[in-house]
Design brief:
alpha/beta, 7-stranded mixed beta sheet
Length: 286
């Protein structure tokens, strides 16, 4: 059995294009298996550079980038990578503890987290919003009857999930506000962001949100609550005030240049300045 056939399930193989299959075989051979996280980040940067993507222009080049087989590799690799699997296990355990009736994973990609939650909560409706899901992901989801891919949000959810989503989009505050309107009052939005230069497709113009995301959500009407792995849950208070959220974001945009040059501590110091200069009522480091 080849390394490719050993590490990629038959279900996935049956839904690959020849280009995708060749790409995966080359990568698995190159690394002797799935790459580690740092190697994956370098692989993600390759098509961004090759396509000449510009973080200030969300054009066809960026669209082609997100259709590149490296994202298929990313979806498969995170289901084998120990830390990624552990993170999903902890996210899933937290969701199970909330006893939801309806859950949506917004920007859920390959669907690994949704499938895990669906298996743990077989009577709960789990949706994955992904405009162009990979056929292999849809096939894998079909094995869990209560998990399905949908093109857009519909109705009201008890829990919304967005992990590693908002750092990739040009208007994360607007997107957070528009999606939060489908969250029931008292429901929780589980968000995990990385507003930092881990990979080139993390938009630099958003890095200021690393010091203000909790304050932005608080102003929006989503109260920051407990930490969940590298994310946080936000409880819907009953309003979605996008204008107030944008004001907090703009404040952090002005503050961030004061701390961005620091080799360490920029987020902690930036949050302190946010408290002082933006009149935040949220207790940082909660």
């Amino acid at each position: 059995m080849t390394l490719f056939n050993k590490l990629v399930s038959e279900t996935v193989i049956n839904h690959l294009t020849s280009e995708e299959k060749n790409y995966l075989m080359e990568i698995l051979d190159r690394f002797g298996g799935y790459p580690n996280l740092e190697q994956l980040w370098a692989l993600v940067d390759e098509p961004w550079i090759d396509l000449g993507c510009d973080p200030r222009m969300m054009d066809d080049r960026v669209g082609a980038f997100y259709r590149h087989p490296v994202w298929l590799l990313n979806g498969l690799m995170t289901e084998h990578h120990p830390s990624s699997r552990d993170n999903r296990s902890k996210f899933s355990a937290w969701i199970v503890d909330q006893k939801p009736r309806r859950v949506v994973d917004f920007g859920g990609g390959f669907g690994g987290l949704a499938r895990r939650v669906g298996a743990a909560l077989p009577s709960v409706e789990i949706e994955v919003v992904e405009p162009h899901p990979h056929p292999a992901a849809v096939a894998l989801a079909a094995a869990t009857p209560n998990v399905r891919y949908v093109p857009e949000l519909s109705g009201v959810y008890d829990i919304m999930i967005a992990t590693d989503v908002f750092e990739h989009v040009p208007d994360p505050i607007g997107l957070a506000a528009s999606t939060a309107r489908n969250l029931r009052i008292g429901g929780q939005y589980l968000i995990a962001n990385c507003f930092a230069p881990a990979v080139l497709c993390h938009l630099p113009q958003l890095f200021h949100l690393s010091i203000s995301w909790d304050a932005v959500m608080q102003a929006m009407g989503l109260r920051p609550e407990e930490r969940v792995v590298y994310g946080r849950s936000y409880r819907h208070s009953g309003i979605v005030d996008e204008q107030a959220a944008r004001a907090k974001g703009e404040c952090s945009r002005q503050i961030y240049p004061l701390v961005s040059w620091l080799p360490r501590g920029k987020v902690r110091i930036g949050k302190t300045l946010m408290q002082t200069l933006c009149r935040s009522t949220y207790t940082w480091g909660k």
